[in-house]
Design goal:
By secondary structure, the chain is an all-alpha fold. Helix content is 77%, strand content 0%.
């Protein structure tokens, strides 16, 4: 992250201040989310320096797979963000790194699952993002983000939904890996969970047809996702 900030600072007088500021804010948002992740997974706090080194190397391996590993909808967002930054004078490599910041948060869960199951990080990452695409996680995250936040409790509720969504993706990825090799994990998982999978797809279709899915509707969708991983 220090290298990223230095690259952003190097754009002084080359890119607009608003562009540099937005990139710093995006990086800061990732730091906040990652800090909260470690606070929720407190076992890693016993030796934080070791944990940071371990997760950094794992995150670098995941980042090297971007953008090819991203689901189609998330890839479209990545491409648009990177292109927009390049138009604003940001070098292509830095634009790609900043565009990938949101997806990079997944690296923590990918590394955690790989460690727990003794699997290769890259294989876990590919299944993790394939599962996200199959179950429309990018759209669900976006729908949660569009919920109104008129009070402090609304903001907390949205954050809780996002946390629940991330936890479910981690659990579903681990479930699929336990049952089959990573290369066959998604297909085998869909076969084993055919009935619940189709039920979730119907709920998802209903959400897509709604003009503005509300908190209740999204809570039902997350319950169905939880059922998929609770056999």
């Amino acid at each position: 992250m220090v290298q990223l900030w230095r690259a952003i600072e190097a754009l002084d007088y080359k890119a607009a201040d608003r562009v540099q500021t937005a990139m710093v804010i995006d990086a800061g948002r990732l730091i906040v989310r990652a800090t909260l992740w470690f606070l929720r997974h407190r076992a890693h706090l016993a030796d934080l320096s070791r944990a940071i080194d371990h997760f950094r190397s794992g995150a670098e391996r995941v980042a090297a797979l971007f953008p090819q590993v991203l689901p189609a909808t998330e890839r479209a967002g990545f491409d648009a963000a990177a292109a927009r930054l390049e138009r604003d004078g940001v070098p292509a490599a830095l634009a790609a790194n900043v565009a990938a910041l949101d997806a990079l948060f997944n690296a923590l869960d990918v590394v955690e699952v790989a460690d727990q199951l003794g699997r290769d990080i890259e294989a876990v990452a590919r299944l993790h993002f394939a599962m996200a695409g199959e179950l429309d996680f990018p759209w669900l995250r976006s729908a949660i983000g569009r919920l109104p936040a008129d009070s402090h409790w609304d903001t907390l509720a949205k954050a809780a939904l996002r946390d629940d969504l991330a936890g479910m993706l981690r659990a579903l990825t681990a479930d699929a890996l336990r049952a089959a090799p990573a290369a066959d994990g998604l297909a085998a998982w869909k076969t084993r969970n055919a009935v619940l999978y189709e039920r979730f797809r119907q709920v998802l279709a209903d959400l897509h047809s709604a003009q503005s899915p509300d908190l209740a509707m999204l809570s039902v969708a997350l319950r169905e996702l939880r059922n998929l991983g609770s056999r």
